[in-house]
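Progress against Task 2.4 (sequence-to-structure conversion) is shown through the following example record, which the project officer requested during the mid-term review.
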Amino acid sequence: MVQINNLQNNENMKKIAEIGCYEVYEHQKDLSVDPSSSAVAYFMQEMNFRKRQVLCKLNGNAVKVQAGAMQWTAGSVTMSSGIKGAKDFLGKAIKGIATGESTAKPIYQGNGYVMFEPTYKYIILEDVSTWGGGMVLDDGLFLACDSNIKEEIVARSNVSSALLGGEGLFNLSLSGEGIAVLESAVPREELIEIVLENDEVKIDGNMAIAWSKSLQFTVEKSGKSLLGSLASGEGVVNVFRGTGKILMAPVTYGTLMQQKNSTKEPAKTSSGGLIGSVINSVLDA
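Structure tokens generated for the chain above:
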């Protein structure tokens, strides 16, 4: 029998979400600081940059976890590599290189607890079955999932979307019944959920962090002609068509979004955007 104290009854550890066997805890304050880092810790806490951890309660079930994500286990919990031989290892290594995920995803099973390493990113718990035929994830989003969830690698539908879409050539797809644990740079409260029924969405930039596998993803000119696309300042856009849903971040980190949308200067077409639009037109021709 395992009894864990000063976790669920800790005032500084607030449970903010729970689905299935997963519980998400948020450190309300970073108490392990010294004088030199106390000011930074204070302002990080005020801006919601807080440590978050996932506690998985196993009751005979099993979960797949991103390699290196486990902090501790307690109880009768065993771990297997999830690799079934040299051929399986080679295949998963190739998938890992393609998607940026770990080659092996250890499987933890038994009766007890698995605690994940703390992270300053936001934890999102998604019921994979609500995504129809499956959900496609942006690179680096996967943290864990129920062991019965099927993993696949999906490729772009055309060359132009691979080169210009900003999403990479391959992505990890999850399908089946169960819960997926995602690690996002944007909190769930800020993510915009778009539900499509035989319709389309055009997004300027790689702000979609997850989308239904049933949707067709391409990259196209923002206007009917190359000249019109360049004149609009948008160049190319990511296009999702069909029936399904999309989780979209309201901002794109690491871009010049503020300068681009500033009213102080007129919009400019960069050389990169011009070249990208020309390449896209040639590939789609």
